[in-house]
Design goal:
The chain is an alpha+beta fold. The protein has 2 domains: 8-35; 38-141, Endonuclease, Chain A (3-Layer(aba) Sandwich), CATH 3.40.960.10. The radius of gyration is 17 Å and the shape is globular. The model has no long low-confidence stretch (mean pLDDT 81). It contains 7 helices and 4 strands; from the N terminus they run αααβββααβαα. A 4-stranded mixed sheet has the order 1-2-3-4, sandwiched between helices.
Amino acid sequence: MAGVRLTELEAVKLGLIPPGKANARLRNRYQRAMAADAPQAILQRILTEKWPDIAMPEYQGAVPGRKFRIDVAFPEARLAVECDGWEHHGRYKGDFQRDRERDRLMLLSGWRVLRFYASEIKKSPVSVIETVTSVLAICTENS
């Protein structure tokens, strides 16, 4: 018999785990993601230091009617910069699929999405800044 993988939300809906337990796990994942040495926190720090007036961490409202947050947004350029770590974006099929849906919805709302692997952010933050600089230039040319 093959095993079945469920997201926490699916397990809660099926009554397999209580809602509070799922919420506690999600809170712990978010706290780990925002630890000072975590890739998402590094991404937010390097981009907000480079562009303090236009880089907006934890940005909401990019897509009307949707509640997701962008790791770092440049709203005037309509550029979203995301950190893709294994734990939050590749480990579970549901997370991966949700990210692709978000990308499509953002594209349809006029946003560009730039994704960096966690290892890229940690090993080469200068390269991340250079790439964002190049894409911001493209966004500015086209607006």
